[in-house]
Design a protein that fits this description.
Structural class: mainly beta
Number of domains: 2
CATH architecture of the largest domain: 7 Propeller
CATH topology of the largest domain: Methylamine Dehydrogenase, Chain H
CATH class of the largest domain: Mainly Beta
């Protein structure tokens, strides 16, 4: 994992410890800890300054359980994660103990999010449903039906009265779908227009009626929630995205190894962050004896080839 400082622009810090791919990351509300989940069946807590792993959590009942997306509670005391072995797990971070386990379900939970006041936890299931738990004891409060495929992401409005969820749609290719719910009544308020590409991630801005979603077709879409309309589209690899707490910037990343930072209001791309690849900035101009496939591989790993234009 790599941590960038966007203010001081110091060299990126690399955190090493997971033995398999990292699935999700999450900053604690005070910014002092970074949580990561991976396919090595562990959630790790990191001190981003010292780069040390200060805590490692596993599912005590299922040591081979893998973890999906995580979420910190607003007070920073609890950490929730969706699991491969069904249900959600919630830990008391300071006490280093398990708070409760949501095992009522028989479906994989891909994503979780806390309500702004910390009283509810929402999760998106692979069975096409959105689940709401009481955060104090793990009691299941609501089961929202409406998606046509597995739920990929969930996000709360800043006042906690509405919830947005994205899904994959029907069929192997799927089509994007974003739903908005009235949490108190458990009713669907809006269904945003379907479009090609599964919606993989979304976030709700704390400033006004704006959401951003990213899909498998590599498109970022800005949504006016009040009107239920897409107001801006931009292209770029998207696997995950997050709006800054002040609602001014958007960060998105994909499987191209880069993080793009955007101005949320204008949609302008401000900068691109990328770790140096194995052959970053290696000039291979005029190198002999390489096949086209080898040259393409070197370019993908950061090498550059200068092109001379005819006079």
């Amino acid at each position: 994992m790599t941590v960038w400082d966007l203010i001081d622009e110091t060299p990126p810090r690399v955190l090493r410890g997971h033995r398999w791919p990292v699935y999700a990351l999450g900053w604690s509300p005070d910014g002092k800890l970074l949580a990561s989940s991976g396919w090595d069946n562990a959630i790790r807590l990191w001190d981003p300054i010292s780069r040390a792993c200060v805590e490692k959590q596993r599912d005590p009942d299922n040591p081979d359980n893998s973890f999906f997306r995580m979420a910190w509670s607003p007070d920073g005391q609890r950490l929730a994660s969706g699991t491969y072995r069904h249900g959600v797990l919630v830990w008391e971070v300071t006490a280093r103990s398990q708070r409760w386990v949501g095992r009522q379900l028989t479906t994989l939970i891909r994503c979780v999010a806390w309500s702004p006041d910390g009283t509810l936890l929402v999760g998106g299931g692979e069975d096409d449903h959105v689940y709401l738990w009481d955060a104090s004891d793990g009691a299941l409060r609501r089961r929202l039906a409406g998606h046509q495929g597995f739920v990929t992401s969930v996000a709360w409005s800043s006042d906690g009265t509405r919830l947005a969820s994205s899904g994959s749609g029907q069929g192997q290719g799927g089509s994007g779908e974003v739903l908005v719910w009235d949490v108190r009544r458990g009713e669907r308020l809006q269904t945003f227009a379907e479009y090609p590409g599964r919606v993989l991630t979304l976030d709700w801005s704390s400033r006004g009626e704006l959401m951003v979603s990213g899909d498998s077709a590599g498109m970022l879409r800005w949504w006016d929630v009040q009107r239920g309309e897409c107001v801006r589209v931009d292209q770029g690899a998207v696997q995950s995205l997050r709006i800054s707490p002040d609602g001014r910037r958007l960060a998105s990343c994909g499987d191209d190894g880069a993080i793009n930072v955007w101005d949320l209001e204008s949609g302008e791309r401000l900068r691109t962050l990328r770790r140096d690849r194995p052959y970053e900035r290696l000039n291979i101009t005029g190198v002999k004896g390489l096949t086209e496939a080898e040259i393409a591989t070197l370019r993908a790993l950061g090498a550059i080839e200068e092109v001379t234009l005819p006079l």
